[in-house]
Amino acid sequence: MKPQQKNRDFSIDTLRCIGLFCIILAHVAPPNWLFQIRNFDVPLMVFISGYLYRGKQDNLSTITEQLAYLGKRFVRLVIPVWAFLTFFYLIQLYFPSLFTINYTLYPSIMLSSYLLMDGFGYVWIIRIFLLMALLGPLCMKFFKKPINLLYYYIGYELFYYLLKNKINSPSTNLFNEIVGYTAGFLVFFILGSLYNKLSRGQIKAIFAVSTIITIGAALYFIGYKNEPFNIGDYKYPPRLFYTQYAIVICFLLFYAKSYLGNFRSNLVAFIGSSSIWIYLWHIMFLFLIPKIHWGPRFILVFSLAMLISYLQQQLVNFLIRISGCSEAWSKQIRIIFCS
């Protein structure tokens, strides 16, 4: 094992692998039952972000430190997306026949993607992580007590329930994308940041309630209404059944966290530390690889995304060595292109 990996928390890498695996799986059109099961993927990644933020919070006591943290998150999250989108659109511009849709013909979609909005899809998740980094330091004082998170969540659900007919319309898409998504996923970020502060009894209570709601919903839809329990129908923005199901899975995975840390391998560490670029490169291959059976397509997309990410890291490290650039610049370049 490499020296720098001795103190690495491999359980977090394993959890990131699971989350990334499920996110990419959703994009290759698996069977509906499998598509529904993996609906905990984005909440898990946000939960992990909150969990890791908690460990940094003590070092972010001043406004200057918080702004520095936000700046680092911007460089780590947004700059790689802008770099990828620029390359992606250039490929589309010069090789349009490779793609079923040439997005360079639609400037509004291009701009929307650069702004991390809906765009052509896929990059909105980065906006969520960036907003969590922005809101995390601002919310921690209010959410020091877990009961405040419960009040917030109940208020959020009531808001969407009472105003669902007015909010769920094309004219309110922008509101849902910015406010709704952020407010909904903030539940997972805060819950992740509070996880180590929760007592065993509190964890059991939250898990039990979420499990009962999830099973009750499944019985209602499948047994009473005689229709599939489509958890994903409650994802945009996240609300009741989607949220409760995701909490159940997140708590199960974190309960098994100590066992997941046994998966100590260079591959797990690579995927865990390179998740953003593997995610970005998989977008390219979704467009380039024909829509064959979901299983082989998933293997191809995931494998090629990992391969390109690995080759990219090797190329960047090589260019840094031969360029002789300063240590500060080398660090920033690696943060952007090597995760």
How do the helices and strands line up, and which of them pair or pack?
Elements: H1 10-26, H2 32-37, H3 41-56, H4 63-94, H5 107-114, H6 124-139, H7 146-162, H8 164-167, H9 173-194, H10 200-224, H11 240-255, H12 257-260, H13 266-273, H14 275-288, H15 294-323, H16 327-337
Helix pairs in contact: 1-3, 1-13, 3-6, 3-9, 3-11, 4-6, 4-14, 4-16, 6-9, 7-9, 10-11, 14-15, 15-16
Describe the structure.
This protein is mostly helical and about 350 residues long. It has helices at about 10-25, 30-35, 40-55, 65-95, 105-115, 125-140, 145-160, 165, 175-195, 200-225, 240-255, 255-260, 265-275, 275-290, 295-325, 325-335. Helix 1 packs across helix 13, helix 10 crosses helix 11 and helix 14 crosses helix 15. About 30% of the residues are buried.
